[in-house]
Protein backbone atom coordinates (compact mmCIF):
# COMPACT_ATOMS: atom_id res chain seq x y z
CA UNK A 1 0.00 0.00 0.00
CA UNK A 2 1.19 3.54 -0.75
CA UNK A 3 2.35 5.51 2.29
CA UNK A 4 0.15 8.43 1.26
CA UNK A 5 -2.91 6.13 1.43
CA UNK A 6 -1.98 4.80 4.89
CA UNK A 7 -1.54 8.33 6.27
CA UNK A 8 -5.08 9.43 5.34
CA UNK A 9 -6.38 8.18 8.70
CA UNK A 10 -4.09 10.41 10.85
CA UNK A 11 -3.28 14.09 11.23
CA UNK A 12 0.21 14.70 9.86
CA UNK A 13 2.11 17.69 11.31
CA UNK A 14 4.87 17.65 8.66
CA UNK A 15 6.91 15.26 6.57
CA UNK A 16 10.21 14.95 4.73
CA UNK A 17 10.69 12.65 1.73
CA UNK A 18 8.46 10.78 -0.73
CA UNK A 19 4.89 9.94 0.34
CA UNK A 20 4.33 7.93 -2.83
CA UNK A 21 6.52 5.00 -1.73
CA UNK A 22 5.16 1.45 -1.39
CA UNK A 23 4.92 0.14 2.20
CA UNK A 24 5.18 -3.65 2.61
CA UNK A 25 4.66 -3.93 6.38
CA UNK A 26 4.10 -1.86 9.55
CA UNK A 27 5.95 -2.39 12.85
CA UNK A 28 6.47 -0.83 16.31
CA UNK A 29 9.32 -3.21 17.20
CA UNK A 30 12.58 -2.33 15.41
CA UNK A 31 13.73 -5.97 15.68
CA UNK A 32 10.90 -7.02 13.35
CA UNK A 33 11.58 -4.40 10.68
CA UNK A 34 12.30 -5.66 7.15
CA UNK A 35 13.01 -3.75 3.89
CA UNK A 36 10.03 -1.64 2.78
CA UNK A 37 8.55 -1.46 6.29
CA UNK A 38 6.86 1.53 7.98
CA UNK A 39 8.26 1.90 11.52
CA UNK A 40 6.12 3.75 14.09
CA UNK A 41 8.12 5.13 17.03
CA UNK A 42 5.89 4.98 20.13
CA UNK A 43 6.75 6.21 23.63
CA UNK A 44 5.88 3.09 25.63
CA UNK A 45 5.73 2.48 29.38
CA UNK A 46 9.08 0.61 29.33
CA UNK A 47 10.96 2.01 26.32
CA UNK A 48 10.73 4.88 23.84
CA UNK A 49 10.56 3.76 20.21
CA UNK A 50 12.28 6.99 19.13
CA UNK A 51 15.54 5.53 20.47
CA UNK A 52 15.28 2.70 17.91
CA UNK A 53 14.67 4.74 14.76
CA UNK A 54 18.31 4.20 13.68
CA UNK A 55 18.02 0.45 14.21
CA UNK A 56 14.75 0.39 12.21
CA UNK A 57 16.44 2.20 9.30
CA UNK A 58 19.37 -0.23 9.46
CA UNK A 59 16.79 -3.02 9.18
CA UNK A 60 15.43 -1.54 5.96
CA UNK A 61 12.58 0.75 7.10
CA UNK A 62 11.35 2.84 4.15
CA UNK A 63 9.40 5.30 6.31
CA UNK A 64 9.29 6.47 9.92
CA UNK A 65 6.29 7.86 11.80
CA UNK A 66 7.33 9.68 14.98
CA UNK A 67 6.55 12.58 17.32
CA UNK A 68 10.06 14.04 17.24
CA UNK A 69 12.02 14.07 13.98
CA UNK A 70 15.64 12.85 14.37
CA UNK A 71 18.38 15.50 14.16
CA UNK A 72 20.14 13.46 11.47
CA UNK A 73 17.98 12.06 8.66
CA UNK A 74 18.56 9.59 5.84
CA UNK A 75 17.74 10.84 2.31
CA UNK A 76 16.45 7.39 1.33
CA UNK A 77 13.85 7.36 4.16
CA UNK A 78 10.55 9.26 4.44
CA UNK A 79 9.90 10.85 7.85
CA UNK A 80 6.38 11.71 9.04
CA UNK A 81 5.75 13.71 12.20
CA UNK A 82 2.49 13.28 14.17
CA UNK A 83 1.49 14.81 17.52
CA UNK A 84 0.71 11.44 19.18
CA UNK A 85 2.25 8.31 17.67
CA UNK A 86 0.57 6.06 20.28
CA UNK A 87 -2.79 7.33 19.02
CA UNK A 88 -1.70 7.12 15.36
CA UNK A 89 -0.37 3.55 15.30
CA UNK A 90 -3.79 1.87 15.68
CA UNK A 91 -5.32 4.03 12.95
CA UNK A 92 -2.37 3.41 10.61
CA UNK A 93 -2.59 -0.36 11.24
CA UNK A 94 -6.37 -0.38 10.67
CA UNK A 95 -5.92 1.34 7.30
CA UNK A 96 -2.96 -0.85 6.29
CA UNK A 97 -4.92 -4.04 7.03
CA UNK A 98 -7.96 -2.90 5.07
CA UNK A 99 -10.28 -1.65 7.85
CA UNK A 100 -11.21 -5.19 8.99
CA UNK A 101 -13.91 -4.04 11.43
CA UNK A 102 -15.89 -2.63 8.50
CA UNK A 103 -16.16 -6.23 7.23
CA UNK A 104 -17.07 -8.07 10.45
CA UNK A 105 -19.03 -7.35 13.65
CA UNK A 106 -16.58 -6.84 16.53
CA UNK A 107 -17.89 -7.05 20.10
CA UNK A 108 -15.64 -5.99 23.00
CA UNK A 109 -15.98 -7.28 26.58
CA UNK A 110 -14.50 -5.23 29.41
CA UNK A 111 -14.55 -5.32 33.22
CA UNK A 112 -12.42 -6.80 36.01
CA UNK A 113 -13.81 -10.35 35.99
CA UNK A 114 -15.71 -12.47 33.47
CA UNK A 115 -14.17 -11.12 30.24
CA UNK A 116 -12.64 -14.43 29.12
CA UNK A 117 -15.75 -16.46 29.93
CA UNK A 118 -18.15 -14.11 28.13
CA UNK A 119 -15.98 -13.59 25.03
CA UNK A 120 -15.19 -17.32 24.71
CA UNK A 121 -18.81 -18.43 25.18
CA UNK A 122 -20.01 -15.95 22.55
CA UNK A 123 -17.33 -17.26 20.19
CA UNK A 124 -18.42 -20.86 20.80
CA UNK A 125 -22.12 -20.01 20.58
CA UNK A 126 -21.88 -18.20 17.24
CA UNK A 127 -19.78 -21.01 15.79
CA UNK A 128 -22.62 -23.35 16.82
CA UNK A 129 -24.98 -21.06 14.93
CA UNK A 130 -22.91 -21.84 11.81
CA UNK A 131 -20.86 -18.64 11.44
CA UNK A 132 -17.12 -18.25 11.00
CA UNK A 133 -16.00 -16.44 14.16
CA UNK A 134 -12.85 -14.89 15.63
CA UNK A 135 -11.81 -14.71 19.29
CA UNK A 136 -9.20 -12.46 20.95
CA UNK A 137 -8.74 -13.47 24.60
CA UNK A 138 -6.36 -13.96 27.51
CA UNK A 139 -6.29 -17.72 26.99
CA UNK A 140 -5.90 -17.96 23.20
CA UNK A 141 -6.79 -16.18 19.96
CA UNK A 142 -8.79 -18.05 17.34
CA UNK A 143 -9.54 -17.48 13.69
CA UNK A 144 -12.55 -19.76 13.45
CA UNK A 145 -11.03 -23.14 14.44
CA UNK A 146 -7.36 -22.12 14.14
CA UNK A 147 -5.64 -21.39 17.47
CA UNK A 148 -3.12 -18.55 17.62
CA UNK A 149 -1.20 -18.25 20.96
CA UNK A 150 -1.43 -14.98 22.89
CA UNK A 151 0.73 -13.04 25.39
CA UNK A 152 -1.61 -10.17 26.31
CA UNK A 153 -5.33 -9.80 27.04
CA UNK A 154 -5.42 -7.30 24.17
CA UNK A 155 -2.54 -7.45 21.65
CA UNK A 156 -0.64 -4.37 20.43
CA UNK A 157 -2.53 -2.42 17.70
CA UNK A 158 -0.50 -3.82 14.80
CA UNK A 159 -0.85 -7.46 15.89
CA UNK A 160 -4.52 -6.79 16.64
CA UNK A 161 -5.29 -5.37 13.21
CA UNK A 162 -3.26 -8.08 11.46
CA UNK A 163 -5.33 -10.66 13.35
CA UNK A 164 -8.64 -8.95 12.59
CA UNK A 165 -7.58 -8.53 8.95
CA UNK A 166 -6.91 -12.26 8.69
CA UNK A 167 -10.30 -12.97 10.31
CA UNK A 168 -12.04 -10.74 7.75
CA UNK A 169 -10.08 -12.30 4.85
CA UNK A 170 -11.08 -15.78 6.00
CA UNK A 171 -14.76 -14.87 6.05
CA UNK A 172 -15.42 -14.36 9.77
CA UNK A 173 -18.79 -12.68 10.32
CA UNK A 174 -18.20 -11.97 14.03
CA UNK A 175 -15.24 -11.42 16.35
CA UNK A 176 -15.41 -11.33 20.14
CA UNK A 177 -12.62 -9.65 22.06
CA UNK A 178 -11.53 -9.00 25.62
CA UNK A 179 -10.78 -5.30 26.03
CA UNK A 180 -8.36 -4.66 28.90
CA UNK A 181 -8.02 -1.34 30.70
CA UNK A 182 -4.38 -1.20 29.55
CA UNK A 183 -5.45 -1.48 25.90
CA UNK A 184 -7.82 1.47 26.25
CA UNK A 185 -5.29 3.62 28.13
CA UNK A 186 -2.56 2.77 25.60
CA UNK A 187 -4.90 3.34 22.61
CA UNK A 188 -4.35 -0.21 21.32
CA UNK A 189 -7.96 -0.31 20.07
CA UNK A 190 -7.66 3.02 18.22
CA UNK A 191 -9.20 2.91 14.73
CA UNK A 192 -11.38 -0.14 15.42
CA UNK A 193 -15.15 0.03 14.91
CA UNK A 194 -17.13 -1.96 17.48
CA UNK A 195 -20.59 -3.39 16.87
CA UNK A 196 -21.08 -3.75 20.63
CA UNK A 197 -19.54 -3.46 24.06
CA UNK A 198 -20.23 -5.48 27.22
CA UNK A 199 -19.43 -4.38 30.79
CA UNK A 200 -19.09 -7.10 33.44
CA UNK A 201 -18.06 -5.50 36.75
CA UNK A 202 -15.41 -3.27 38.29
CA UNK A 203 -13.30 -4.05 41.35
CA UNK A 204 -9.73 -3.37 42.38
CA UNK A 205 -7.14 -4.57 39.83
CA UNK A 206 -4.12 -3.28 37.87
CA UNK A 207 -3.52 -0.36 40.27
CA UNK A 208 0.22 -0.96 39.76
CA UNK A 209 -0.40 0.54 36.30
CA UNK A 210 -3.40 2.88 36.72
CA UNK A 211 -2.30 4.12 40.20
CA UNK A 212 -5.88 4.98 41.31
CA UNK A 213 -9.25 3.22 41.08
CA UNK A 214 -10.65 6.34 39.40
CA UNK A 215 -8.08 6.07 36.57
CA UNK A 216 -8.95 2.39 36.19
CA UNK A 217 -12.66 3.26 35.97
CA UNK A 218 -11.99 6.04 33.44
CA UNK A 219 -10.04 3.64 31.20
CA UNK A 220 -12.96 1.19 31.16
CA UNK A 221 -15.51 3.98 30.63
CA UNK A 222 -13.52 5.45 27.73
CA UNK A 223 -14.25 2.27 25.77
CA UNK A 224 -18.02 2.90 26.01
CA UNK A 225 -17.59 6.64 25.39
CA UNK A 226 -15.99 5.73 22.04
CA UNK A 227 -18.69 3.32 20.82
CA UNK A 228 -20.57 4.52 17.71
CA UNK A 229 -24.33 5.19 17.57
CA UNK A 230 -24.79 1.98 15.53
CA UNK A 231 -23.39 -0.20 18.37
CA UNK A 232 -24.97 -1.61 21.52
CA UNK A 233 -23.65 -1.07 25.07
CA UNK A 234 -24.71 -3.95 27.36
CA UNK A 235 -24.03 -3.27 31.02
CA UNK A 236 -24.36 -5.11 34.34
CA UNK A 237 -27.04 -3.31 36.39
CA UNK A 238 -25.96 -5.29 39.50
CA UNK A 239 -22.58 -3.49 39.57
CA UNK A 240 -22.59 -0.02 41.14
CA UNK A 241 -20.50 1.26 38.21
CA UNK A 242 -22.67 -0.43 35.57
CA UNK A 243 -24.70 2.64 34.64
CA UNK A 244 -21.72 4.99 35.11
CA UNK A 245 -19.97 3.14 32.28
CA UNK A 246 -22.69 3.96 29.74
CA UNK A 247 -23.78 7.43 30.86
CA UNK A 248 -21.95 9.18 28.00
CA UNK A 249 -22.11 6.54 25.31
CA UNK A 250 -23.73 7.16 21.92
CA UNK A 251 -24.51 3.43 21.62
CA UNK A 252 -27.89 1.81 22.34
CA UNK A 253 -27.86 0.94 26.08
CA UNK A 254 -29.21 -2.39 27.40
CA UNK A 255 -28.93 -3.89 30.90
CA UNK A 256 -28.69 -7.35 32.48
CA UNK A 257 -29.22 -8.28 36.14
CA UNK A 258 -29.90 -11.00 38.69
CA UNK A 259 -31.42 -8.51 41.14
CA UNK A 260 -33.28 -5.64 39.49
CA UNK A 261 -35.56 -4.67 36.60
CA UNK A 262 -33.64 -4.74 33.35
CA UNK A 263 -33.70 -5.89 29.72
CA UNK A 264 -32.19 -9.32 30.39
CA UNK A 265 -33.28 -10.63 33.81
CA UNK A 266 -32.01 -13.82 35.40
CA UNK A 267 -32.60 -15.90 38.52
CA UNK A 268 -30.87 -19.01 39.90
CA UNK A 269 -33.61 -21.59 40.62
CA UNK A 270 -31.37 -24.57 41.52
CA UNK A 271 -27.60 -25.07 41.80
CA UNK A 272 -25.11 -27.89 42.29
CA UNK A 273 -21.52 -28.85 41.32
CA UNK A 274 -22.96 -30.27 38.07
CA UNK A 275 -24.65 -27.02 37.00
CA UNK A 276 -27.62 -24.70 37.55
CA UNK A 277 -31.26 -24.27 36.57
CA UNK A 278 -31.76 -20.64 35.53
CA UNK A 279 -34.77 -18.50 34.74
CA UNK A 280 -33.87 -16.03 31.98
CA UNK A 281 -36.61 -13.60 30.96
CA UNK A 282 -39.27 -16.06 32.23
CA UNK A 283 -37.80 -19.07 30.40
CA UNK A 284 -36.08 -21.93 32.25
CA UNK A 285 -32.76 -23.38 31.08
CA UNK A 286 -30.33 -25.95 32.53
CA UNK A 287 -26.67 -24.90 32.20
CA UNK A 288 -23.37 -26.66 32.96
CA UNK A 289 -22.02 -23.75 35.02
CA UNK A 290 -21.79 -23.11 38.76
CA UNK A 291 -22.28 -19.95 40.83
CA UNK A 292 -24.13 -16.64 40.67
CA UNK A 293 -21.17 -14.93 39.01
CA UNK A 294 -21.47 -17.43 36.15
CA UNK A 295 -25.22 -16.84 36.01
CA UNK A 296 -24.36 -13.16 35.50
CA UNK A 297 -21.83 -14.05 32.78
CA UNK A 298 -24.42 -16.20 31.00
CA UNK A 299 -26.94 -13.33 31.12
CA UNK A 300 -24.37 -11.11 29.38
CA UNK A 301 -23.87 -13.80 26.71
CA UNK A 302 -27.64 -14.19 26.28
CA UNK A 303 -28.17 -10.41 26.06
CA UNK A 304 -25.35 -9.87 23.56
CA UNK A 305 -26.56 -12.71 21.33
CA UNK A 306 -30.10 -11.27 21.31
CA UNK A 307 -28.76 -7.77 20.57
CA UNK A 308 -26.86 -9.25 17.63
CA UNK A 309 -30.19 -10.45 16.23
CA UNK A 310 -30.47 -14.04 17.46
CA UNK A 311 -33.84 -15.43 18.62
CA UNK A 312 -34.14 -16.02 22.42
CA UNK A 313 -35.10 -19.69 21.94
CA UNK A 314 -32.01 -20.56 19.87
CA UNK A 315 -29.78 -18.67 22.33
CA UNK A 316 -31.19 -20.64 25.30
CA UNK A 317 -30.63 -23.96 23.49
CA UNK A 318 -27.01 -22.95 22.81
CA UNK A 319 -26.52 -21.89 26.48
CA UNK A 320 -27.66 -25.34 27.65
CA UNK A 321 -24.96 -27.02 25.51
CA UNK A 322 -22.00 -24.73 26.33
CA UNK A 323 -19.35 -25.84 28.82
CA UNK A 324 -17.18 -23.74 31.20
CA UNK A 325 -13.97 -22.19 29.88
CA UNK A 326 -10.76 -24.04 30.87
CA UNK A 327 -9.48 -22.90 34.27
CA UNK A 328 -12.69 -21.05 35.13
CA UNK A 329 -14.44 -22.89 38.01
CA UNK A 330 -13.05 -26.16 36.68
CA UNK A 331 -14.38 -28.86 39.05
CA UNK A 332 -12.66 -32.27 39.34
CA UNK A 333 -13.94 -35.06 41.61
CA UNK A 334 -11.39 -36.89 43.76
CA UNK A 335 -11.50 -40.70 44.21
CA UNK A 336 -11.58 -39.90 47.96
CA UNK A 337 -14.91 -38.08 47.53
CA UNK A 338 -13.91 -34.41 47.76
CA UNK A 339 -14.00 -31.86 44.92
CA UNK A 340 -11.07 -29.78 43.65
CA UNK A 341 -11.86 -26.55 41.81
CA UNK A 342 -9.21 -24.83 39.67
CA UNK A 343 -10.04 -21.17 39.06
CA UNK A 344 -8.28 -18.10 37.66
CA UNK A 345 -9.52 -15.88 40.53
CA UNK A 346 -6.62 -13.48 41.12
CA UNK A 347 -8.40 -10.46 42.62
CA UNK A 348 -10.16 -10.16 46.01
CA UNK A 349 -13.52 -9.78 44.25
CA UNK A 350 -13.01 -12.81 42.01
CA UNK A 351 -12.03 -14.87 45.08
CA UNK A 352 -15.16 -13.69 46.89
CA UNK A 353 -17.31 -14.70 43.90
CA UNK A 354 -15.82 -18.19 43.62
CA UNK A 355 -15.98 -18.85 47.37
CA UNK A 356 -19.58 -17.59 47.50
CA UNK A 357 -20.45 -19.97 44.66
CA UNK A 358 -18.86 -22.90 46.52
CA UNK A 359 -20.80 -22.10 49.71
CA UNK A 360 -24.07 -21.74 47.76
CA UNK A 361 -23.67 -25.35 46.62
CA UNK A 362 -22.08 -26.84 49.79
CA UNK A 363 -24.70 -25.33 52.14
CA UNK A 364 -22.47 -26.14 55.13
CA UNK A 365 -22.17 -29.85 54.32
CA UNK A 366 -18.38 -29.80 53.92
CA UNK A 367 -15.26 -27.76 54.58
CA UNK A 368 -13.58 -25.34 52.15
CA UNK A 369 -9.79 -25.47 51.85
CA UNK A 370 -8.31 -22.66 49.73
CA UNK A 371 -4.88 -22.58 48.07
CA UNK A 372 -4.03 -18.99 47.12
CA UNK A 373 -1.10 -16.75 46.20
CA UNK A 374 -0.51 -13.40 44.51
CA UNK A 375 1.53 -12.41 41.47
CA UNK A 376 4.90 -10.70 41.79
CA UNK A 377 5.67 -7.23 40.34
CA UNK A 378 1.96 -6.38 40.34
CA UNK A 379 -0.45 -4.45 42.58
CA UNK A 380 0.90 -5.11 46.10
CA UNK A 381 -2.14 -3.54 47.74
CA UNK A 382 -4.38 -6.48 46.88
CA UNK A 383 -2.12 -9.07 48.57
CA UNK A 384 -3.42 -8.70 52.15
CA UNK A 385 -6.97 -8.39 50.75
CA UNK A 386 -6.58 -11.72 48.92
CA UNK A 387 -5.48 -13.39 52.18
CA UNK A 388 -8.33 -11.78 54.15
CA UNK A 389 -10.98 -12.85 51.64
CA UNK A 390 -9.63 -16.42 51.63
CA UNK A 391 -9.62 -16.67 55.43
CA UNK A 392 -13.10 -15.11 55.74
CA UNK A 393 -14.72 -17.79 53.60
CA UNK A 394 -12.52 -20.87 54.13
CA UNK A 395 -12.04 -23.39 56.92
CA UNK A 396 -8.35 -23.79 56.08
CA UNK A 397 -6.06 -21.67 53.86
CA UNK A 398 -2.73 -22.60 52.30
CA UNK A 399 -0.92 -19.45 51.17
CA UNK A 400 1.60 -20.18 48.44
CA UNK A 401 3.43 -18.84 45.40
CA UNK A 402 1.62 -17.74 42.21
CA UNK A 403 3.83 -16.20 39.48
CA UNK A 404 6.54 -14.53 41.64
CA UNK A 405 8.17 -13.05 38.49
CA UNK A 406 11.19 -11.08 39.78
CA UNK A 407 10.16 -11.03 43.47
CA UNK A 408 11.01 -13.54 46.17
CA UNK A 409 8.00 -15.84 46.77
CA UNK A 410 8.35 -15.56 50.54
CA UNK A 411 8.23 -11.74 50.38
CA UNK A 412 4.89 -11.94 48.55
CA UNK A 413 3.59 -14.48 51.07
CA UNK A 414 4.67 -12.17 53.92
CA UNK A 415 2.74 -9.29 52.30
CA UNK A 416 -0.36 -11.50 52.24
CA UNK A 417 0.11 -12.67 55.84
CA UNK A 418 0.49 -9.05 57.00
CA UNK A 419 -3.27 -8.59 56.44
CA UNK A 420 -4.21 -11.34 58.91
CA UNK A 421 -4.90 -11.29 62.65
CA UNK A 422 -3.62 -13.84 65.20
CA UNK A 423 -7.08 -15.41 65.13
CA UNK A 424 -6.94 -15.68 61.32
CA UNK A 425 -3.53 -17.35 61.47
CA UNK A 426 -5.00 -20.36 63.30
CA UNK A 427 -6.47 -21.62 60.04
CA UNK A 428 -3.52 -20.62 57.81
CA UNK A 429 -0.33 -22.35 56.75
CA UNK A 430 2.14 -21.06 54.17
CA UNK A 431 4.06 -23.27 51.74
CA UNK A 432 6.09 -21.45 49.08
CA UNK A 433 6.28 -24.49 46.75
CA UNK A 434 2.93 -24.41 44.88
CA UNK A 435 2.92 -28.13 44.07
CA UNK A 436 3.45 -29.00 47.74
CA UNK A 437 0.79 -26.47 48.76
CA UNK A 438 -1.79 -28.15 46.49
CA UNK A 439 -0.73 -31.62 47.69
CA UNK A 440 -1.08 -30.52 51.34
CA UNK A 441 -4.56 -29.07 50.74
CA UNK A 442 -5.66 -32.33 49.12
CA UNK A 443 -4.25 -34.35 52.05
CA UNK A 444 -6.28 -32.20 54.46
CA UNK A 445 -9.52 -32.74 52.51
CA UNK A 446 -12.17 -35.22 53.65
CA UNK A 447 -15.10 -36.65 51.62
CA UNK A 448 -17.59 -33.87 50.86
CA UNK A 449 -15.00 -31.08 51.18
CA UNK A 450 -13.97 -28.64 48.46
CA UNK A 451 -10.36 -27.65 47.67
CA UNK A 452 -10.20 -24.35 45.77
CA UNK A 453 -6.93 -23.75 43.89
CA UNK A 454 -7.05 -20.08 42.94
CA UNK A 455 -5.03 -17.66 40.87
CA UNK A 456 -3.65 -19.42 37.78
CA UNK A 457 -6.58 -21.25 36.19
CA UNK A 458 -5.77 -21.89 32.51
CA UNK A 459 -2.08 -20.89 32.83
CA UNK A 460 0.31 -23.77 32.14
CA UNK A 461 3.42 -22.06 33.50
CA UNK A 462 4.91 -20.47 36.59
CA UNK A 463 7.07 -17.41 36.02
CA UNK A 464 10.15 -17.27 38.28
CA UNK A 465 12.97 -14.73 37.82
CA UNK A 466 11.64 -13.91 34.34
CA UNK A 467 11.65 -17.57 33.22
CA UNK A 468 8.42 -19.48 32.51
CA UNK A 469 8.53 -23.04 33.86
CA UNK A 470 5.81 -25.56 32.94
CA UNK A 471 3.22 -25.70 35.72
CA UNK A 472 -0.46 -26.54 35.36
CA UNK A 473 -2.69 -26.57 38.48
CA UNK A 474 -5.12 -29.01 36.85
CA UNK A 475 -2.31 -31.40 35.88
CA UNK A 476 -0.97 -31.31 39.45
CA UNK A 477 -4.44 -32.11 40.84
CA UNK A 478 -4.91 -35.02 38.41
CA UNK A 479 -1.48 -36.44 39.38
CA UNK A 480 -2.47 -36.29 43.06
CA UNK A 481 -5.82 -37.96 42.33
CA UNK A 482 -4.11 -40.72 40.31
CA UNK A 483 -2.11 -41.66 43.41
CA UNK A 484 -5.19 -41.68 45.64
CA UNK A 485 -6.68 -44.77 43.99
TrEMBL record:
Its main location: cytoplasm. It holds the Pfam family Mur_ligase_C. GO terms for molecular function: UDP-N-acetylmuramoylalanyl-D-glutamate-2,6-diaminopimelate ligase activity. The modification N6-carboxylysine is found at residue 220. Meso-2,6-diaminopimelate binds at residues 378, 402-405, 455, 459. Residues 109-305 form the Mur ligase central domain. Pathway: Cell wall biogenesis; peptidoglycan biosynthesis. It is found in: Cytoplasm. Residues 23-97 form the Mur ligase N-terminal catalytic domain. Signal peptide: none annotated. A motif (Meso-diaminopimelate recognition motif) lies at residues 402-405. ATP binds at residues 111-117. It is an enzyme of class 6 (ligase). Its EC number is 6.3.2.13. UDP-N-acetyl-alpha-D-muramoyl-L-alanyl-D-glutamate binds at residues 30, 153-154, 180, 186, 188. Its cofactor is Mg(2+). Residues 327-457 form the Mur ligase C-terminal domain. Carboxylation is probably crucial for Mg(2+) binding and, consequently, for the gamma-phosphate positioning of ATP. Keywords: ATP-binding, Cell cycle, Cell division, Cell shape, Cell wall biogenesis/degradation, Cytoplasm, Ligase, Magnesium, Nucleotide-binding, Peptidoglycan synthesis. It catalyses: UDP-N-acetyl-alpha-D-muramoyl-L-alanyl-D-glutamate + meso-2,6-diaminopimelate + ATP = UDP-N-acetyl-alpha-D-muramoyl-L-alanyl-gamma-D-glutamyl-meso-2,6-diaminopimelate + ADP + phosphate + H(+). Belongs to the MurCDEF family. MurE subfamily. Catalyzes the addition of meso-diaminopimelic acid to the nucleotide precursor UDP-N-acetylmuramoyl-L-alanyl-D-glutamate (UMAG) in the biosynthesis of bacterial cell-wall peptidoglycan. This is UDP-N-acetylmuramoyl-L-alanyl-D-glutamate--2,6-diaminopimelate ligase. It comes from Bacteroides caecicola. The gene is murE.
Amino acid sequence: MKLEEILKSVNVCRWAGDLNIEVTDIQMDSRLVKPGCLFVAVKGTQTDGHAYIGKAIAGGAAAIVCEILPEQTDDKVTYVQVSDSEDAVGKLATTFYGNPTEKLDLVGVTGTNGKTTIATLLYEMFRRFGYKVGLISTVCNYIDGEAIPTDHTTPDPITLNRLLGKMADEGCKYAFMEVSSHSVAQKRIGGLKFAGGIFTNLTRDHLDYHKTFENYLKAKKAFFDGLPKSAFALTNADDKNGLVMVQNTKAKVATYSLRTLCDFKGKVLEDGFEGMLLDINNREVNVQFIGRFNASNLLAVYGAACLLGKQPEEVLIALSILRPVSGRFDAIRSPKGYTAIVDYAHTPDALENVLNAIHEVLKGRGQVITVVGAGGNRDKGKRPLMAQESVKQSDKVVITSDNPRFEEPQDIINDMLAGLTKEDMRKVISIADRREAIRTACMLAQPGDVVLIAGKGHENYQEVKGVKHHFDDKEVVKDIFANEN
